[in-house]
Amino acid sequence: MLESGTTTHLLSTVASPVIPHVTHVNPTDRFSASDSNILSVGQFIADLPRYIHQEPDLDAMLQNTAEGLCHVLGCDLVAISHIYTEGRAQLKAIAYSTRAATAIDHALPSLQWEDTSRSPDRQAQAFDPLSWANLPADVQQWLQIDQMHDGIVAPLVCEGHRWGNLIGFRQAHSRPWPSNAIDVFEQIAAQVALGVNLFQLKQQLQQEQNQRQQTDQLLSHIRAFDLLTGLPSRQQVLQVLSQAMQVSDLAPQSIGVALLNIDRFQAINNTLGHKVGDQLLMDFGRRLRQQLDPELLVSHWGGDEFAVLLPSMANPETAMVVANRLQSILEHPFEADQTEVFLTACIGFALNQPSHNTPEQIIQDAETALHHAKSHGIAKIFGFHATMHDQMVARLQLEIALRKALERQEFLLVYQPIFSLSQGHLVGFEALVRWQHPSLGLVSPADFIPLAEETGLVVALDKWGLQTACKQMRQWQDRWPSLPALTMSVNLSSRHFSQPNLAQHVQAHLDAAGVTADRLKLEITESTLIENMALANSVLAELQQFGVQVSLDDFGTGYSSLNYLHQFQLNTLKVDQSFIAALEASSEKTAIVQAIITLAHALGMNVVAEGVETLAQQQILTAMQCEYGQGYLFAKPLTVKDATHLIEQKFFAK
Fold first, then answer.
1. pTM, entire model
2. Whether residue 527 has pLDDT greater than 90
3. Is 44:178 a contact under the CB 8 Å cutoff?
4. pLDDT of residue 615
5. pLDDT tens, 291-312?
6. Which residues of 338-354 are buried (b: 16+ CB within 10 A; e: fewer)?
């Protein structure tokens, strides 16, 4: 900054003249006088960049530059204006040779006017102040236009655009301009323009820094709080948990985490929409926060999961109390889109152990407990114990083996016969997949099918099963050309059902095996239909066009909504074995089965009863006009060899 002491040193060789009032003359006559201030002017130009960089702000730089130029060039008045928009100009700085600079530092108002300067964008020139007589009166008063004899104006050009003007005035012709005055104005204008650009860059940098700071604050908030629910985020829970673990190192106390996963939330999203699903998550988080003790930190863990940080001095009993409290909070319905929605959730919790060094280890134990709870059904609560970890390791090993099983051709199909209940005729088979592990032996489908569905391997497994079953049907047809039209039922997972172009892929398998579409029945579950009803209708319509039949498997164990059943094009309804097993002992179950059969017939479907094991069950079902049955009464699932023998025995025995 050009402070008073610095300015005096820089301009010590220049005297401040007295300004008389003179008559205006032709401004072009004033450049013939000799210059006695060349050294001072040169020194001023040389030192100006350094002073510009030292100034604290743009206004101070402009004012001090105007004052310095007023002295070194013998001007009576120097002004700097800024063109800020559409020719509107603003007086930014002004210096008088006969007044103290500080006298007007804070007195200069924001004087504005239409800029009438005709100067070229990059060239200084002399002008007659009379040509500025159309300026507003207040601007003329501050510039003392009526007292000025001549002037020089130089444009301030920043990044190719005229930012404003540097203007110098003299009152007396008796003291002419130095011979190089226009060059001096241009040089100083160039320095001032660079200074303006510098301060604009500084201002831009400061704005960017402010924006960056605001962005950092926003990101910090995002990291600390979930945007959907407003609850603390996962990162904040880990941070608080880490701090609590450090305290527990100093005192014998325990802390823990409970993880909560809403059951079947994907079905809610698919039926009511993601907007309603998000609203439910927000309402659920709000209810947790309002009804749990304030000392319990509640977090939206992500998706349909929430976390509750258990307090210090926690133990399995207090953790179970919190878990039961969470379950009780869910007893009352939520309202979404003018519909009451009941939610249940599985909960897994874990406590800090001496072997734990990081919060992630506690979280991992809680996730293991949660996974264990989910594997046991809905609304289950489990606390972590060491055996769960062993089970997870075993599950991981099974998953690794499962991924290799298809490549190693360790899977096989068995075939459970389906019979006509009234006539006892064989009408088809249901193909069931089995896993012959090289060291574990025959792995139960209850162990590997859920794992295959969870990992997505079930799609490849389904395709293999469909291809193998079609080939087997073709082999039987080739062996016995007169074989009656037996059907082959193949289970289709929900993941496979939702694959693009499913109907075309099914048709390709049929064509490759040389089997007509009416010989194939695809079995799907109720949940598969409910997950995406629009997609289900579309896929079912395509399959029906190809002639492929579709069975609804395990009816009665899922949603069992009579409201949606009529919307789908289905051929067969399969009654779950849990209803069939109770036919002889429960009149209530008998009535339910009769209602299912009547409903299926009303919708144009035939019925297959699963798990028929006694002759009495067969007789009851026949009386109910149930067409078909499968179960141990007729045969267990058979190997290819035994199924082939059964066909031969039923149709071609001599």
1. 0.53
2. no
3. no
4. 94
5. 998 888 999 998 999 999 987 7
6. eeebebebbbbbbbbee
For residue 459, pLDDT over 90 is answered with yes
Instruction: In whole angstroms, give the CA distance from residue 445 to residue 435.
Output: 8
Residue with tokens 């941070």: 239
3-class DSSP state of 307: strand
DSSP run (H or E) holding 350: strand 345-351
> First vs last Cα of the chain: how many Å apart?
118
Q: Report whether pLDDT(99) > 60.
A: no
Q: What is the enclosing helix (H) or strand (E) of 170?
A: strand 161-170
pLDDT at 266: 87
CA distances from 142 to 104, 106, 112, 117, 122 (A): 11, 14, 12, 17, 26
* Percentages (nearest 5) of helix, strand, coil residues in the chain: 50, 20, 30
Crossing angle for the helix pair 274-291 and 316-329, to the nearest 10 degrees? 130
Query: Do 64 and 7 touch, CB atoms closer than 8 A?
Result: yes
The single-letter DSSP state of residue 382 is E
Nearest CA-CA partner of 528 in 466, 570, 470: 570
Q: What is the number of alpha carbons within 13 Å of residue 461 lying toward its C-beta?
A: 30
The DSSP symbol for 144 reads T
- 398-437 residue pLDDT tens: 888 888 998 899 999 999 999 999 999 999 999 999 999 9
**Tokens in use for 152?**
């020089």
Task: Read off the pLDDT of each residue in 529-546 and give the average, rounded to a whole number.
Answer: 87
CB 146 within 8 A of CB 140: yes
**pLDDT digit string (tens) for 374-399?**
988 899 999 998 888 777 787 788 88
Question: Which amino acid, one-letter code, is at 522?
Answer: L
Question: Which alpha helices (DSSP H) does 296-338 contain, by range?
Answer: 316-329
Whether the Cβ atoms of residue 475 and residue 640 lie closer than 8 Å to each other: no
Residue type present at position 542? E
Contacts of 501 (CB under 8 A, 6+ apart): none
CA 38 from centroid of its chain's CA atoms: 67
Residue in 332, 280, 285, 279 with CA at minimum distance from that of residue 306? 285
**CA-to-CA distance for 572 and 563, rounded, in angstroms?**
17
